[in-house]
């Protein structure tokens, strides 16, 4: 039960005003874009985990798994509808242990705790449940990616633990796709397997074998979906990036097979790490993952998959997330910074693990109440366009800044992330002088009011699980709708003020960026 504040406590405002203010000039390079994302860059996952999934002496999944989730809740429906549309990937660790009850498959077992993939027996998706899910997806306007079982028909090696050998058998997937087509269900893309690349996460497939099998999947999709305009894309491998493995599978599969190169990011490590908060607030630690983004981008530039690179799963902390951090305002420092960084490396989509379930769900697993990261994700989806701009600033690592063309033209949208506990920032903007790095930049002086969205923890403690937007607590209405998320209009002649340990989105309608025209 949440107490519904109507305003943020005044102590937060006093605390913010007492912090040391530092003046910073941010230069926006608006002449040309440095990257492009998909229009539906923000993505979330729905996972297969049953209630018995436990880590670190806790079992945080409850009935949030795909087979158990109650799809009738208004809070869940409204949270998805607010994105209009929301990209959802159905998949996760157990997807390679799921059979589809269609065609030759007659029995439909439930996941049971025992020896098997990730400690569970084989599970099953009945077509009755698939019907329910698709009615739900259609009603809420979901753009769907479905993760396929890439281990079907293989056997585990007797000589190398975790290695699955033999050819993938596509018959169960064929029957599943034929049923899906016969019902008119829309699938935007299919992802082949989960975390089978490189060393895997308990299970793995050889890169050459995976390359051969993904050709089989691509041909199956082309055969069953006759019209190119309605043909789902093929994504893979949906695992952790290892340069040699990724290059080998793409060399074997060749160009035009894998439409999108997908990989996973869990750069905060195990969910029980007592240093989790320190990692999130350490800019040098946050920067380390840029090497992964660069490596994936290099592979994309070499093999040129049509849809580029996707982060198809990222929950920050492994094994369900951190019970003390993932649900709090503090997690946004990691999450929104990751989306900003990924977009600068031309990653087209960023899928958060998970919409609901574990500790890292955007929604509470039992009440469906949005956690703070939900609101940060929704603002990104509404404000940040697909064209990514370069920004430069004076070297203060605690201030993170990313800029895009505004989603709704004209103008630019920026996100400011202040990791500092005791410093606020007063930001002035400049427009980079195109074509001559030696000339001074134009100081930007706007004439239209800025649209600002300031996110802060309710009481000033970043471990809070309620976020304030422009000093208004974000809590669902009595009808379980997402509350209004209106901007604060600010005089353009004043600096942009970013409070200590806060996050702000700012849209500037009269900023002239040729890349945004």
Automatic annotation (TrEMBL):
MF-aspect GO terms: beta-glucuronidase activity
A GO CC annotation given for this chain: lysosomal membrane
Stretch forming the signal peptide: 1-21
InterPro entries the UniProt entry points to: GH, Glyco_hydro_79
Subcellular localization: Lysosome membrane; Secreted
KW rRNA-binding (keyword) present: no
Keywords of this entry: Glycoprotein, Hydrolase, Lysosome, Membrane, Secreted, Signal
Coarse class of the protein's main subcellular location: membrane
Superkingdom classification of source: Eukaryota
Membrane topology: Peripheral membrane protein
Membrane-crossing residue ranges in chain numbering: none
Keyword Membrane: yes
Task of the protein: Endoglycosidase which is a cell surface and extracellular matrix-degrading enzyme. Cleaves heparan sulfate proteoglycans (HSPGs) into heparan sulfate side chains and core proteoglycans.
Family to which this protein belongs: Belongs to the glycosyl hydrolase 79 family.
Name recorded for this polypeptide: Glucuronidase 1
Organism: Hibiscus trionum (Flower of an hour)
Taxonomic lineage of the native organism: Eukaryota, Viridiplantae, Streptophyta, Embryophyta, Tracheophyta
